[in-house]
Design goal:
The termini are far apart. The chain is mainly alpha-helical. Helix 2 (about 55-100) runs antiparallel to helix 4 (about 120-150), helix 4 packs antiparallel against helix 5 and helix 4 packs across helix 6 (about 170-175). It is elongated, with a radius of gyration of 22 Å. The protein contains seven helices and no strands. Helices cover about 80% and strands about 0% of the residues. About 25% of the residues are buried.
C-alpha cells in the first residue's frame, strides 16, 4: 500500500470520526433535553389531573397529557439507542485498531452482526423493544378505557406504568431479578385496564 493511499485512509477515518462525534454529541444533547421535557410534562400533567371544565374534557386532557409524555419518552429512548450504538462503535473500533484487528463497521455494532456484540447496545435495544411491546397493549386499553369509563382511573394506571417504565434501562443492565421489578408492575397496570374492559364487555362476571 502506497504512502498516499495510507494517508487517504487516515484522512477518511478522521473525517468519519468527526462526523460521528458531531452526531453523538447532538444526539446525546437531544436525549438530555427530552428527559427534561418529559419530566416537565409529567409534573404539569399530574398536577392538573381531573381539572377539566367538564368530566369529559378533564379525561381528554389527562389522556392527552399522558400521550405527550409517552411520545417524548419513546423518542428519547430512540435517540439514546442511536447514541449508544455510536459510542459503542467508537470504543470497539479504537480497541480493534489498538489490537491490530479490523475495526467493526457501524451496522455490525448497531445490529450485532459479524460476531460484534456490545452489552450497552443490547441494553438500549431491549429498552426500546420492551417499551414498544408493552405499549402495544397499553395504549389501546387506555384510549378505550377513557372512552368507556372516563374519569381518572385509567390515566392513573397509565402514569404508573410510564413512571415505573423509566427505570427499565438501569434495571436491565443489572440483570435478574431487577428488571422484573419493572415488568411485573407494568403488567399489573395493563391488566387492571383490561379487567375493567372485560367486565364492560361482559367477559367477566361482576359481583
Amino acid at each position: 500500500m502506497s504512502t498516499t493511499t495510507r494517508a487517504e485512509g487516515r484522512n477518511a477515518r478522521k473525517d468519519e470520526s468527526i462526523v460521528l462525534d458531531a452526531v453523538r454529541v447532538s444526539t446525546r444533547a437531544g436525549v438530555r433535553a427530552m428527559a427534561v421535557m418529559t419530566m416537565f410534562m409529567t409534573w404539569s400533567s399530574l398536577a392538573r389531573l381531573g381539572r377539566g371544565t367538564t368530566a369529559a374534557d378533564g379525561t381528554a386532557r389527562d389522556v392527552a397529557g399522558f400521550l405527550c409524555a409517552w411520545a417524548m419518552t419513546y423518542y428519547r429512548l430512540l435517540f439514546n439507542q442511536s447514541c449508544t450504538a455510536i459510542e459503542a462503535g467508537q470504543r470497539l473500533r479504537a480497541k480493534a485498531r489498538k489490537d491490530g484487528e479490523p475495526p467493526p463497521r457501524m451496522y455490525e455494532v448497531k445490529y450485532a452482526r459479524g460476531g460484534v456484540t456490545s452489552r450497552e447496545v443490547l441494553c438500549a435495544d431491549r429498552t426500546v423493544g420492551n417499551f414498544m411491546e408493552q405499549s402495544l397493549a397499553l395504549l389501546p386499553a387506555l384510549l378505550m378505557h377513557a372512552h368507556v369509563f372516563g374519569g381518572m382511573r385509567g390515566v392513573r394506571f397509565a402514569w404508573a406504568w410510564l413512571v415505573v417504565r423509566w427505570g427499565y434501562g438501569a434495571a436491565f443492565r443489572r440483570g435478574l431479578p431487577w428488571f422484573i421489578f419493572i415488568t411485573v408492575p407494568n403488567y399489573a397496570c395493563v391488566l387492571a385496564l383490561y379487567v375493567d374492559l372485560a367486565r364492560f364487555a361482559g367477559l367477566l362476571q361482576t359481583s
